[in-house]
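User: Okay, second chain of the day. Same drill as before: sequence in, C-alpha cells out.
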Amino acid sequence: MSTFHLSRRSVLAGSAVVAAVSLPAVSGQARAAVPAAPAAPAAAAKSGYRWRNAVMGGTGFITGVLFHPSARGLAYARTDIGGAYRWEDRTDRWIPLTDHLGWDDSNLLGVEAMALDPAHPDRVWLALGTYTQSWAGNGAVLRSEDRGATWKRTDLTVKLGANEDGRGCGERLLVDPRNSDTLWLGTRHDGLLRSTDRGATWTAVSFPATPSATGQGITLLVAAGRGVYAGWGDSDGTAGSPNLYRTSDGKTWEPVPGQPTGGAAKVPIRAAYDHRARELYLTYANAPGPNGQSDGSVHKLRTTDGKWTEVTPVKSGGTTSEGGTDAFGYGGVAVDAGRAGTLVVSTNNRWAETDTVFRSTDGGHTWKSLKDEAVLDVSETPYLTWGKDKPKFGWWIQAVGLDPYDSQHVVHGTGATLYSTRDLKHWAPQIRGLEEASVVQLLSPPTGEAHLISGSRDIGVLYHERLTASPSRGLATNPVFGSSTGLAQAAAKPSYVVRTGSGDNGNGAWSNDGGKTWAPFEAQPAAAEDAPGLIVSNADGSVLLWALAHWDGTLHPAHRSADNGATWSEVTSLPKGAVLVADPVDPARFYAFDTTAGTLHASTDGGLTFTARATGLSSGDAGFQLAAAPGRSGDLWLSAKANGLYRSTDGGAAFTRVGSCRASHTLGFGKAAEGASYPAIYMVGGIEDFNAVHRSDDEARTWKRINDDQHQWGWTGTAVTGDPRVHGRVYLATNGRGVQYGEPV
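Assistant: Same drill. C-alpha cells below.
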C-alpha cells in the first residue's frame, strides 16, 4: 500500500446529510517579497473551544526527520502537506508547529526543508511551499528562537515544491558551518539563495548549474567540516554530467572531482557527514522519487583527500523471490555521531521485495538488513496492516534518522508513519501527535459505538470507537480503499452505511452494522473502476445514487440501485456532476444541484427521475455543497463558497440568501443547544472578511467563531459536521492535518 500525495487535494466528498463535489486549490495567494514579515498570527481569538486531533496515527508521508546534534531528545519532522512537528521527549509525542497557517497560506503547509543550528538548540528554520505550479503561491521561510513556539516569517519571491517529485530528498535548507547567521536555501527552479541575517532576508547567489524543467534543482545541502555540498537533480544523467557541487569559502561553487554520475547515480537523494571519519555518505537513484526509482547506489567521499568509494549494500536489478526484477533506488542516510563508520541507509521504491534499512559498522564495507530480523508492533496504529496479516517494514523510505545520543535509536519514515527502534530489532510507530491525513468525508452517527466515521485520501474509511486512539479495526476492509471518495449513512436507518473509493476488490461497499464491517456491492457501474465518485443513500437505505467522477474531473452519468448494489441503472434526467443529497425524512426524495446551470433538481420517486425546481442560482463555482437539515423534510442549505449561503424550506422550489453569511464553503449540523428547537449549524466560511469555523444555535441568524488564530490548519473547506449527541462538539476535515475536533471549554 502506498500513499500518493501529489494529487492530495480534496476532490470529492459526500454523505447522507451533506454532499459536495469540489476541486479546491490548496495554494496560498502569491505575495510580494518582503523582508521579515510579521510572524506570528495576531493574538488568538477567545473562541471558547479546545481543539484536538481525532487520533489516526500518522497516515501521511514523512519526508524528513532531524535529530538535534547537541540537545538530547530534541527532533523535528516534516511532511509533504501537513506541516512540521517537534518531538517532545518528556511527553513522548510530536507537537505541531504550523497549525497557525490559515486559508490564504494553505500552500505553506507543505514543508520543503528544515534547518537546525548545532550551536543554538532553540533555533529552527522551515522552508515552506507545497507546489510550484502557476496557481500556487510563493514559498516562505519561518524562523524561530524558541523551538517553534513562535515564528517570524519572510515571504519569498520563488516557489517551493514540498508535495512534488523529489519531496523526500535531503534538506534543501542549511545553517552555514562557518557562521550561524548565514543560511543557504536550495530551490527547484531558481537556483541557490543565501541569507546573512538568520533568514530574515534572502538573496539569489551564483550557482554553476542551470535549472531545467524537471523541477528538482538543488536536492540537498549538507555541511562537511567547514565546507558545504549541494546535490543537483537536473543533471542530464550522462557520464561526466556533474550532480554534486561544493564551496569551501561560501562564495564560489565547483563540481566535486571524481563524483559518480549517470545511470543509477543520476540524482543525489540524501547525504550525511561522519565527522569522526571525515567521510561524506550519499545515496543516489535514477529518479528523485518517491515513485519511479528503479536503480540506485550509495557512495562515500573522504573529504581529506577526495577519494570516492562505492559502498552500495545491494545492487538493484536482481531477481526477486518470485522471479521478477528487484528494482529500486536508495533514499535515506544517517550516521552515528558517536561511532565512526556506523551508519544506516534505506532502499526506496522497492515494491517487489519491500524496502529496508541497512546498517553498517565498518564504513559501508559490510551491511546488515534491519528488516530481516525486525519485529513490528503496530498495535497503536492498527491500520498499518492494510487489511492483511502483518504490516510492511516500509515503503517510500527517504527519511532516516539516527539519534546522536543513542546508537540503537533509529527511525525511518514511510508513506504513512514513522517507525522507530531502540534495539535495532523491535520496531513500532513513533507517531503520537503527528496526524497528516487528507480527510474528505465525515459522518457522526446519531447512535452506536462510534461518534465519528471518516474518509480520507490515503487510508480509506476509519471507524473511530474513540477519538483519543487510532481505530482498533484499522482501515475499512472488504474492500480496502487506498483513497475514499464517498461516504453516506441512511438518516432513518443509521446502521446502514455505504462508501466508494479506489478499492482492491471493487469500488463500493455497504455495512449493516454502522460501519464496523463491510461487504462489496455485488456489481458496480462500468465507469466506477476509474471514476468512483460520490454516493448517497435515501433515508431508509432502500435506494442508492452513485454520482461517478474521475480523479481528473471527468464526469459520468449517475447510477441508481434499489437492491443494495446488486444492479445499477443510469439516471438520465440527472445532470452529470450534480451535487446530491438525500432527504433525511422522506425515502422517496432526493435533491441535486447542477453547478453548471445553477439549477436545483428534485426527485419524488426514489431517484428514478429528477425535475428542475429553483433556477437562476449561483453557478460555475466548483465548490458547491448541498446539505439537508436532519429530521426535517425539504430543509436545504446550499453553500456557494464566495457567493454565500442559501436556504430552501420547500424542497428546493425557492432559495433565500442567508444575510448573516458572506461566504460558505462547507456546512454541517449537530445537536441543538439546550432550549433550542433547531440543530446547531457548523459552517466553514466567512462572516467577516476571512474564513474561519463558526457555529450558530439560532438557524444562522447569528454566528460565533469557534476556532482561533493559532488553530487554522490551512485549507479546511471540504467537510464539517457536528455531533448529533453532544452539543458543541464539531468535527472538521483538513487537507493534511487529519480530523480536528473541537469542544467548548
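Residues 1-45 have pLDDT under 50 and may be disordered.

User: Thanks, on to the next one.
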